[in-house]
Amino acid sequence: MTRYKMTMAYDGHLFHGFQVQPDQRTVQGVVEDVLKRMTKGKYVKVEGSGRTDAGVHAMGQVIHFDYPQREIPAERMLPALNSQMPTDIIFTNCEIVDDDFHVRYSAKGKWYRYRCSLDHFVNPFKRFYTGHFPYPLDVAKMQKAASDLIGTHDFTSFAASGGSIEDKVRTIYYVNIQEDKANNEIIFDFIGSGFLYNMVRILVAMLLEIGNGRRPVDDIPRVIAAKNRLEVQGTAHASGLYLYHVFYEDVPAKYRLDLQ
Amino acid sequence: MTRYKMTMAYDGHLFHGFQVQPDQRTVQGVVEDVLKRMTKGKYVKVEGSGRTDAGVHAMGQVIHFDYPQREIPAERMLPALNSQMPTDIIFTNCEIVDDDFHVRYSAKGKWYRYRCSLDHFVNPFKRFYTGHFPYPLDVAKMQKAASDLIGTHDFTSFAASGGSIEDKVRTIYYVNIQEDKANNEIIFDFIGSGFLYNMVRILVAMLLEIGNGRRPVDDIPRVIAAKNRLEVQGTAHASGLYLYHVFYEDVPAKYRLDLQ
To answer: Which family does the record assign (chains A, B) (predicted)?
Structure first.
């Protein structure tokens, strides 16, 4: 038995999310099916660093699994899996890791990106790959407001109901909001110790309200203190969200705005 | 009866091309269905500046149609149609034109773009939107070779069989081949008086052979002179091709390399 850690990208728009569900096409399900073929019928459980919802993408999702048969060198496992993947999944890295490595428990941080198109109409080429906000936005205002997210807080106000996790305390290390003028998009980057269910999409929805002037720029400390999901009504659309990177080493100092 | 000229973009990956076909989802078919609803059942024929094949995209396709009912101002026709379009079609401009305007016969030139990804593997996010060539390429060599395409030639060697057009003489005004390093792509631009069936995709396939060193850089005059489709075996994949712009005014002088 050999434990493999693999990094993958996927276009989420034709998946019902990462996690296996009966009769639905999921990322975990597709990878487990391929591993089952490779092992001639043995079930190999795939563990992900986190679930992504239907329509959410990954540039750097990480999985691990225990391959029950003769060890395959990592540099051969990578093309072996890629050659059997559908075109909306690609593995970009493969390592053999110790048995005490766990893709979820060993993670030290996660990076999510949100792409928001500012096009007047929904751009046909971006409809699966961005959110959409065709209204006035003040990026400097959003960036200013976002600095109030940095640090360790109880993020109950930003967790969708339905999550089963009791402890809603997380640390946000880094938030950056920038215009991509060439593509007429706003790019939101969030790095933190972890994120609650729908938390990034709720944060984006709130920041867009601030950037649009519908919510005061200094509202975030109040919303955090309220610990009430009803404080933020919106949830940005899944199509703009990317699990961008998972950190298994310490998050680099340049992204630790909470320590500055 | 009022003639409308409309410019549109579409993501071609879920269409069986532009032209109406029985039991297939086509761009023309979708637009005609919407016009039929607007006119409460009257058939309104949509004419396109040219057909695009299954999987081919448009940034600037142009259509015309004769609206049989009370004239709707152009600035109202645009949102009226957009509000009923599926998300993979968008109209970007609308004008009321004279009855002697014809989207095909009035065109003075066409601009096609081809995006070719150089990623090692097929990138999940680009699989519907680029061709793919993960081999060494010398862009300067392709650009040098492409200059032999400029001018008026019989392009029989570059026309897929199946086209019904007898006259294979066309004028290519402009070819540009550039690297898009940020996206790891090569962008091919072709502007000409018109293009034969599959001509752009065959030209791209040939230029990639030249850039890869499998065909001499000075081969194009010989291939043109041969007037034999068997001279170029390949056809670049439909997914990378975009009908980028149709000129109804004279093609600007900066794109008339044939006159320099």
So the answer is: Belongs to the tRNA pseudouridine synthase TruA family.
